[in-house]
Write a structure and sequence with these properties.
By secondary structure, the protein is of the alpha+beta class. The chain folds into two domains: 59 residues, no CATH class; 100 residues, no CATH class. Helix content is 49%, strand content 19%. The chain is built from six helices and eight strands. Helix 1 packs across helix 3 and helix 4 packs across helix 6. The structure holds zinc ion (ZN).
């Protein structure tokens, strides 16, 4: 003998089309069985519960019990998702802070090193330039002034200095750009070019020279 409640559920089930959206909204899992799709409700059923046929599933989503637990389940789910999103935001922010801190520590370390260096005056340099005069090759010297220390020298001093402090090294490119900035702010200023190193006293961006010397 079916009750009016059961009749009502059955009628609703008969009019229900189990679309993907409906499955999602009701938190129904589905899988293929031997005679068609089988369903399980994530709100009401635990792992040991047997899978429902399609009609059983349609009836299930109209029960008062399911409507109530589905409401709670969805509320929990959105609360959990919000918390999850918040945690992701925190992790993102934390990564940014770590990156900034690393950059700051790096800059700080290079500056500490340069403050321990002696400032050193420019030196006079010359190189032989071959030119053709009336079809004849002659050699003439080019004189120029240059900051005394190459980047490679200063960088290897810096690495040794870091090693004695037991600190890990920073990337070479990073050290270079920090040193160039420091040179620019020093009393000697920065004269750097993009081509031949003798054209500018601080060489080129590729191979800069500095007015700093590290005395061991
Ligand atoms: Zn349910």
């Amino acid at each position: 003998m079916s009750t009016p409640y059961k009749e009502k559920i059955k009628r609703s089930a008969e009019m229900t089309d189990l679309t993907y959206e409906l499955l999602k909204k009701n938190n129904l899992k589905s899988r293929m069985g031997a005679v068609g799709s089988l369903y399980k409700c994530s709100c009401c059923h635990d792992e040991s519960e047997k899978w429902l046929t399609q009609f059983e599933a349609k009836k299930h989503i109209h029960t008062d019990k399911h409507k109530k637990s589905n409401k709670n389940y969805n509320a929990m789910k959105s609360k959990y998702e919000n918390e999850y999103r918040m945690r992701l935001n925190c992790e993102e922010r934390n990564k940014e802070i770590q990156k900034e801190l690393f950059k700051y520590n790096g800059t700080h370390r290079v500056q500490e090193f340069l403050l321990e260096c002696e400032e050193a005056d420019d030196i006079h340099m010359s190189l032989d330039d071959e030119v053709s005069v009336d079809g004849e090759m002659i050699t003439r010297p080019i004189f120029y002034i240059s900051a005394p220390t190459t980047f490679n020298e200063l960088y290897s001093n810096f690495q040794e200095w870091c090693d004695t402090l037991g600190e890990s090294n920073i990337s070479k490119d990073n050290v270079k750009s920090i040193m160039i900035k420091f040179q620019d702010e020093s009393a000697y200023g920065l004269e750097i070019g993009e081509c031949e190193e003798y054209l500018k006293k601080n060489g080129t961006l590729e191979s800069p020279k500095f007015n700093f010397k590290f005395e061991k």
